[in-house]
Amino acid sequence: MSSPSSIRLLLNGAPVAINGLRPQTTLLEYLREEQRLTGTKEGCAEGDCGACTVVLAELTGARLAWKPVNACIRLLPSVDGKAVFTVESLRAPDGSLHPAQRALVECHGSQCGFCTPGFAMSLFGLYKNAHRPERAEVDDALSGNLCRCTGYLPILAAARRMYDIDTMAGWRGPGVNANGSRCESSEEESIAAQLAALTRAHSFEYAAKSQCWSAPRTIAELADACLTRPDAQIVAGATDVGLRVTKQQRDLGDIIYTGDCAELQIVANTRSHLEIGAAVTLTDGCAALDAEWPELHEAWIRFGSVPIRNSGTLGGNVANGSPIGDSMPALMALGATVVLRRGDEQREIPLDDYYIDYRKTAREPGEFVAMLRVPHRRDALLLRAYKIAKRFDQDISAVFACFALTLDEGRIAQARIGCGGVAPIPKRAQATEALLEGRRWDDATAEAAAASLAREFAPIGDMRASAAYRCKILANLVRRFRVETADPAVLVRVHAAVTVMV
């Protein structure tokens, strides 16, 4: 029976109310163990392989946003008020397949089959969001599905083929108006109306089996909750915290969720800064940064995968403080600050000063990250970010470096270098910055900076890279930065043109 304290959602189009399950129950656990929807698979249990991919539909204004996410690390109460679609929902009532499924069949896109439901759901998410996307969009949409038995070309072919297949009964793809804008089907309008009815006017409080979930709707209520329960676990997308549940079987204790706080979901351009609320998803936060600093585009599309970026938040990545997080070195190079709030009080500190030691930050008990502020682009800025990892898509960095030089008549007026993977915390290369400032940006300066950067840190060796490799890579990235900025016509990347036959 539904009550104000029940978790309420639409599951494959039908309303459900959930009571009695612990707040740290994952969406995957609920789907498989409670609903017996076993098409959604558990592979890695860490948001890496994509076998657990489902699609959320949520209201943005009066319209729906369709978002593939990883069910394995998504905490169940965080989908309150949303619509969840699993692979079982794709088939129409008459048994006919959705175009994404039929395309996989026709293009022979299934290998062993374990990962196929996840691929189907990623394709379904793409189908709901794009009209005949370009190859790069398809690659990005499938970045969170890591098939171990190969066969990617047939799946890429299916991504194109599904748009040529007539829409099956019960589902309609993204219609396109004469002006090119997307129009929604009557079914989508019905889902939107049902979700509007589930929208809560007040904060959502849920408790079961000695664990409490609090989802404040205003920043004042969030501040009060953090003061009242300073030891509670603050979560947003739980793309990191979720692994403590699935991999470490840890009890999270009471949980405070930031994802329902509208004031933390705002991206704003002020006269001097780009401001990104702490609950803005990585998808939206990276898009905002990409618009002003397009040189960082590759860094953002290699940041996790589409499902991870749809759940995780930029504020959560910063607050987490991992030494191998991809956003922090870039934000440091851009001169970002972090706004912290405790009760009615607020303070702003440079992001560089937020990290104190491994997994230790300047955040005090009862305090939370409210916003990131990034100064607008400076004139004569040279900017690049480089991620070194074993895979191109969805892999943890061995080294991440972001270089930002401001030139004044050929000389370096300001240098900021953010580095990850080479110290216990994300860190600026301040010694190398000091060496650069005042010099002309030429080959000799780049070589001096490479030598300095190679000895500035004392990284560890681990499964991703040896300490010596990390130091050498840092030096070589300075040289690469010099080549790219000295003559933009010089090609430093190999691009393979792949034609997918349908």
Question: Please, could you describe this protein's structure?
Answer:
The chain is 31% helix and 22% strand. It is of the alpha+beta class. The chain has 2 domains: 199 residues, Beta-grasp domain (Ubiquitin-like (UB roll), Roll); 192 residues, CO dehydrogenase flavoprotein, C-terminal domain (Enolase-like, domain 1), CATH 3.30.390. The longest helix is centred in the C-terminal third of the chain and has 20 residues. It is globular. The C terminus is likely disordered.
Q: Helices, strands, pairings?
A:
Blueprint: E1 7-11, E2 14-18, H1 27-34, E3 53-60, E4 63-70, E5 83-85, H2 99-106, H3 116-129, H4 135-141, H5 152-161, E6 175-176, E7 182-183, H6 186-198, E8 204-208, E9 211-215, H7 219-228, E10 233-235, H8 241-246, E11 255-257, E12 267-269, E13 273-277, H9 282-292, H10 297-301, H11 306-311, H12 314-320, H13 327-333, E14 337-342, E15 345-350, H14 351-354, E16 355-357, E17 360-361, E18 368-375, E19 381-388, E20 399-408, E21 411-420, E22 427-428, H15 430-436, H16 443-456, H17 467-486
Parallel strand pairs: 1-5, 9-11, 10-11
Antiparallel strand pairs: 1-2, 3-4, 3-5, 6-7, 8-9, 12-13, 13-18, 14-15, 14-18, 16-17, 19-20, 20-21, 21-22
